[in-house]
Amino acid sequence: MLSTTVTVIILTISTLVNDDVVKAQASDLNWWKHAVFYQIYPRSFKDSNNDGIGDLRGIIETLDHFPNLGVNAVWLSPIFKSPQVDQGYDISDYRDVDPDYGTIEDLQELIQEAHAKGIRVILDFVPNHTSDKHQWFIDSIKGIEEYRDYYIWANAKTDDNGNRVPPNNWISSFKNSAWTWNEERQQYYLHQFASAQPDLNYRNPKVVEAMKDVLRFWLDQGIDGFRIDAITHLFEDKDLPDEPKSGLPGYNDTDYEYLNHIYTINLPETFDMVYQWRQLVDDYTKQDGGDQRVLMTEAYSDVNHTMLYYGTADGRRLGAHFTFNFNFIKNIDIDSTAYDIVDNAINKWLNAIPAIYTRDFERTPYQWDTSINAGFNTGAKPWLPVSEKYLKTNLQQEEETDGSSHYKIYQALVEIRGSPTIVSGDVEVEAINENVILMKRSYDQSSIAVFFNKGNEDVVVSVNDYVPNDNNIEIKSINSLRDMGSSIDPANLNLDAHEALVISF
Ligand SMILES: [Ca+2]
Ligand SMILES: [Ca+2]
Questions:
Q1: 291 has catalytic annotation
Q2: Distance, CA 283 to ligand 2 centroid (Å)?
Q3: Which of 49, 225, 394, 467 is geometrically suited to a Cys-Cys bond with 294, CB 3.0 to 4.6 A?
Q4: Could you say which of 98, 229, 398, 474 is catalytic?
Q5: pTM score of the predicted model
Q6: Which residue, among 73, 108, 7, has the nearest Cα to 296 in the 3D structure?
C-alpha cells in the first residue's frame, strides 16, 4: 500500500519547465500544476446532524484536516439532487444540493470557508446523462417542444417474429441493451449507463447551452473547477449503426465487452465539446479575474485518446487541464513485475504527460478517532457500517503516535513534493530488477530518489549508477527498520519485502 502511495505521489509531479515555478509564485493561474487534490466522498466523510449520512456541514467542520495534511484542493463526489440510483451520478437537478448533504447555502459556506483556509473546491460535473427523474426527461417524455429532443429517442424496430426490438445492438456499460422502451412516448431512449440515466442529446444546441449554463452557475458560486465524469460516452454516432463484435472470449451478447464500441465512445464531437468547455472556463477566468478555474476529465481510454482530452495535437485548442491516468489501475496488478510497471504504466504516461491522480477505494465512513462510530457522527447508524478496525486505525491515532504512521508518511511525501527538485527536476524511471523500481528527479545539483521493492522477499541490488555514497534517507515506508537520517550503501542496497525509501543527495 505504501509503495503505491510513493509511486502516486512522485508521479503526480508535472514535468514543468523551470520558469513555471517562478510564474506560479507570481500568479495563481498555475496553482493546479502544484496542488495536491483530495477526493471527498461526502456520504462517508463526516455526518454533522447524526442522521447516518455524511454531509456538507460535516466537511465544513473538518476543513482543517486538509491544510494539516498538505492538501490544497478538494474534489467532492456528486452532491447534487439525485434519487441516488448510481451514487449521485444520476442527477435530477444540476443546480441544487441533495437534502441528504444539506443546502446550497451550506455549499456556499463550504466554498467560502475552504477558500479562507487556502483550499480550492472542485465539483463533479456529470454531463452524459441526467436522472430519469430530471424535469427535462419528464418533459421530453411528454414531447413538450422545448425538451422533445433533449435526449436520444429512436423508434422501435420489428424482428422477424413481429416483436418490438431496440433500434440497434448497443449495450449499456452496466450490461444489456442500452435502450429502454418508454410506453408514454412510444419510443426507445438511449442510456449508456443505467436505465435510470438517460443520455442527453448533445447534437441539440439547446442541450449544449443548457449544460454550459450549469457550468456558469457553479462558477458563479465560486467553485474552482470541475471533474468531468464519464466523458468518453458523451456523443454517439447519429445514424445509430450496429457496433461490431469485439471477438473477446468469455462474453455473451448482453455484456458490454461483447461489442467494439466504435460508435459510442471517444467520438470527435466529444473532444470538441471538452474544448468548448475549456474555452468557457478560460473565458470565465479572464472575465472574472482570480485564479484559474480547472477542468479534469475521467477517461478510461488508451493513451492516444486520453491525450486528445488535453487538446488537439497542434496545440491550437485546449481541453482538460489534466486527465486521470487509469493506466495505473488497468495496466498493472499485484503480479506485475517492476519492468511491467515501468513500461506499461509509468513510461507510457510520462512519454505523454503526467497528471495528478487520486482515487479512493473505500466507501465506509471515515475513521476520525476512537469515539463512537469512529467520530463519523454521534451514534446514529451510519449508511455503511464503520470498519471494526477503527479503534486501532484512525486519524487521531496516526497523527498523535510517536512512531511512524501512514498519515505522517503522507504528510512528509506531500512536503517533499513541493521541493524544487521534485517540482522542476528531470525525471528518470528504471526497473532495477524484477521487483525494484527507481524513480529519480534531479535539479540544480540536488536529487531525490525513490526506491521500492514490490516483491514479497528481501532483495539486494547495486544502485551505484544512480546514487552516490553520500546520501540521506528522508522518508521510509512504515515497515522499514532503518534509521531516519541514515544513509544507504548504494553498492549493496538491501531492501526488505515491500520496503520503500525516499533518499536525497
Ligand atoms: Ca447527515
Ligand atoms: Ca452519450
A1: no
A2: 26
A3: 225
A4: 229
A5: 0.84
A6: 73
